[in-house]
Design a protein that fits this description.
CATH topology of the largest domain: Phosphoribosyl-aminoimidazole Synthetase, Chain A, domain 2
Distance between the termini: 46 Å
Structural class: alpha+beta
CATH architecture of the largest domain: Alpha-Beta Complex
CATH class of the largest domain: Alpha Beta
Largest sheet: 7 strands, mixed
CATH superfamily of the largest domain: PurM-like C-terminal domain
Shape: globular
Helix content: 25-40%
Order of helices and strands: HEEEHEHEEEHHHHEHEHEHEEEH
Number of helices: 11
């Protein structure tokens, strides 16, 4: 990664960090988890050393804490991200398709380039009906039109053994110039840390829609409806569209697996910098705080598609927060980037502590519990 190689270290044509096991991650974590994303230590041992042929046109290759890869084609830059195409029938096929589309595109929107193309592979369950497929695809088309995105290739078929929710995969592509591209190498000490919407957006929205009876029993019908409304916040497309207007935004990340704490930790490791975070400065929506209290989980460690974390020049930070708020997006400055030697620290209600990766996302635990 530019600016992070030590003297005598060979150039890394993949532009990625060959990571030692993460701070706070035990070697016993170097194994497959029961659920959720693969532990960083397993990736460092098994995946990262085996990435095929290197290429001089690779600007950003695979690394923890970066949602996209980037290549240079002539004078243009292209960001790519690949995800499962995630369809949950109980959402209703229109809402499920909306969620699937935004999962795919949020990861390239944070590159700073403009989302532009979609490739998609649909491996459909045999039980999916024509009407369900039409409803699903109609929503994908509508969202693509809304954001100026074109479908350029794909594959569609039914196969025995395919089942919901993973009904295929998709790759999103964003395009732009060198000045538009954001990445971890641009972050500098003194940059401000910004967060939109607060933690546990996805955890709250998904659980309230999937398990409404749990919410009604815990807090009443009005509480369930308020929590379910959070579902529509599970995107950073608008957050990123606002941020793209500010040159001082250096890097962005969607706080998905392991939430705000996981996202901050991975970003700092990817960029080789330290952090000072004020926990009480992070906005927490009242319905989400209530959800976390009722179901006894740490909202800052919970999956949160729709929560954007950004590092920006201090001169742009306050203006960016106001611009988000003008669009109805809650946001705040929550900390500062420091030198790597100063470590990653959180100032919380009980004093200062080290920022550690949660490793286990409470969403998956709760989803398994609620499914019983």
């Amino acid at each position: 990664m530019p600016g992070l190689r030590t003297a005598g270290e060979p150039r890394d044509p993949w532009n990625l960090i060959r990571l030692k096991p993460a701070e706070g991650v035990r070697m016993s974590d170097d194994r497959l988890p029961e659920l959720g994303k693969i532990h960083p230590a397993f990736f460092d041992r098994v995946i990262y050393p085996r990435l095929g042929a290197p290429g001089a046109d690779i600007v950003i290759g695979p690394r923890h804490g970066v949602d996209y890869g980037v290549i240079r084609v002539g004078g243009r830059y292209m960001a790519f991200s690949t995800d499962p195409f995630f369809i949950v029938p109980s959402f209703g096929f229109a809402r499920a398709a909306w969620f699937a589309f935004h999962i795919v595109f949020c990861d390239v929107a944070v590159s700073g380039l403009t989302p532009r193309y979609l490739t998609i592979d649909l491996n459909l369950p045999p039980g999916m009906t024509e009407a369900e497929l039409e409803e699903m695809w109609g929503t994908v088309h509508a969202e693509a039109e809304k954001y100026g995105i074109s479908v350029i290739t794909g594959h569609t078929a039914r196969y025995t053994g395919c089942a919901y929710p993973m009904v295929g995969g998709a790759t999103s592509v964003a395009v732009g110039g060198k000045r538009d591209l954001r990445g971890p190498d641009r972050v500098r000490a003194g940059d401000r840390v910004l967060v939109t919407k607060g933690p546990a957006v996805e955890t709250t929205g998904l659980l309230a829609v999937l398990f409404p009876e749990r919410f009604t029993a815990a807090g009443g019908e009005a509480f369930q409806k308020e929590a379910a409304a959070v579902f529509s916040q599970m995107t950073v497309m608008e957050d990123c569209a606002v941020a793209r207007k500010f040159r001082g935004v250096h890097v962005m990340h969607d706080a998905t697996e392991c939430g705000v704490w996981g996202g901050l930790y991975e970003m700092a490791r990817a960029g080789g910098y330290g952090l000072r975070i004020a926990e009480e400065a992070i906005p927490v929506q009242p319905v989400i705080r209530r959800t976390a209290g009722l179901f006894n989980f740490d909202p800052f460690a919970a999956i949160s598609e729709g929560t954007l974390i950004a590092m920006a020049d201090r001169r742009d930070a306050d203006s960016l927060v106001r611009a988000w708020q003008d669009q109805g997006i809650p946001a705040a400055v929550v900390g500062e980037v420091v030198a790597a030697a100063e470590g990653m620290r959180i100032a919380g209600p009980s004093g200062e502590r080290a920022l550690e990766h949660p490793k286990v996302d409470p969403y998956w635990v709760l989803a398994a519990e609620f499914s019983k």
